Amino acid sequence: MTQLLDKPSLTTAFQRHLFGKKFVWGTATASYQIEGAFATDGRSPSIWDTFSKTPGKVQNGDTGDIACDHYHRYENDFDLMQQMGFNAYRFSISWSRVMPNGRGEINAAGMAFYDRIVDALLERGIEPYVTLYHWDLPQILEDTGGWLNRDTAFAFAEYTNAVTQVLGDRLKNWTTLNEPWCSAFLGYGVGVHAPGQSDFAASLQATHHLLLAHGLTMPIIRNNVADAKAGIVLNPAPVYPASNSSADIAAAHRADGFQNRWYFDPVFGKGYPTDTLASYGAYAPKVEVGDLEIIAAPLDFIGINYYTRTVVKDAVVEAIPAPHTLLGYEYVDLPNVPRTFFNWEVYPQGLTDFLERLQYDYKPKSIFISENGATYQDHLEADGSIHDTERTLYFQQHLAASLEAVQNGVKLDGYFAWSFLDNFEWAEGYEKRFGITYVDFVTQKRTPKQSARWFQDFLLSGEV
Ligand code: FCB
Predict the structure, then answer these.
(1) pLDDT on residue 272
(2) SS3 category, 368
(3) Catalytic-residue membership of 179
(4) Which homologous superfamily is 16-461 in?
(5) How far is CA 4 from CA 262, 345, 387, 388, 433, in A?
(6) Is 418 in the pocket of ligand 1 (CB under 6 A)?
(7) 340 lines ligand 1 (CB under 6 A)
(8) For position 6, what pLDDT does the model report?
(9) Catalytic: 158?
(10) Which residue in the list 142, 371, 404, 425 is annotated as catalytic?
(11) pLDDT of amino acid 464
């Protein structure tokens, strides 16, 4: 194997075996971001098809119509993944592909695609981890209110019932939702994601229906899948105070209510945080009797997607419907800190801190880092190679941060790098590349970047 570490600073003192024999090593993707084939084999439009085709919503007017054409290229993609040494893969199912009407009839041709995917992974010794909902609600359900309509949670249960019955004999690792904070807040609160609504109260109601959907489907997964492992993926943004003043520390706690506790507390059976609920006042969601018990369905694991942290300072509370105004904080952009092309601060310590807090505050049975990664501007060398040194370093720093947490007693069982391929980065289109594999979106050629080579080296040379 070629020597890939072209900078002394990239040398790391940690090796695969330190994470333990059973540690799961994977990469992650999501259906709308990679599949393409948007109108093939009976797939109906999702809210992301509609949103990306609405002028001005996505950079350069990009859409997921073709994306990485993974729908037709999955065999080659999985060969590559196998060569890199990964033993797991996290992907999501497109609801519109398997149930184009949102509920009721299964579309056999669409379902067959996921059947092939699962077999193709297992044939290569790669364990499938599936996400049932990674933001691509069938448009037909949005037309009847989307996540603002309580009924959508029950449609999700029907969809889950159908998919688990078909794939559950081979697919054991099930995640209900990916990052409900994004679906609810970015989609219904500030309108930068599909379906593009901007109403804070609506976003809180959407959260509640998403969490209800999660809770309703946990027992369905367990019923239909023998030996299932079922959980949810949340996206914590650990919040730090801009100073040591007690006012800023209190502001950070309030911001944590919006960003983290609003999701972690109910799924771990604590209900919505009372301080945050009180500050939201009239904007709080309508919760029916029994909902919180449904949402508290026991989890086999929790997945966390970690990219960066948040820094805030105290601010005056204002009766304006937005989290920072109602909760009294302001975001602070620290100067002179390393940042990715997304302008997100690189802060590996936040991962260690949050993992430890998760372990001690919520006591999950098992934790996965279900996404972690970075976008940088990739530069193609004359020989076609990509030396994504900053991204490689980002992975190494975050793996070191994860290992520290493991050594401090956190039950971390796996790590999934985001992402296997450069792909459709939502409102940012194709401009923000997160892949360890470079994709030429004209020719669909795949080229593993230095970061992929580094993983290959790390995973294969350190095999236990
Ligand atoms: C996460 C999403 C994932 C990808 C990364 C960069 O919030 O789950 O689809 O867009 O961010």
Answers:
(1) 98
(2) strand
(3) yes
(4) Glycosidases (3.20.20.80)
(5) 42, 26, 9, 11, 20
(6) yes
(7) no
(8) 38
(9) no
(10) 371
(11) 60
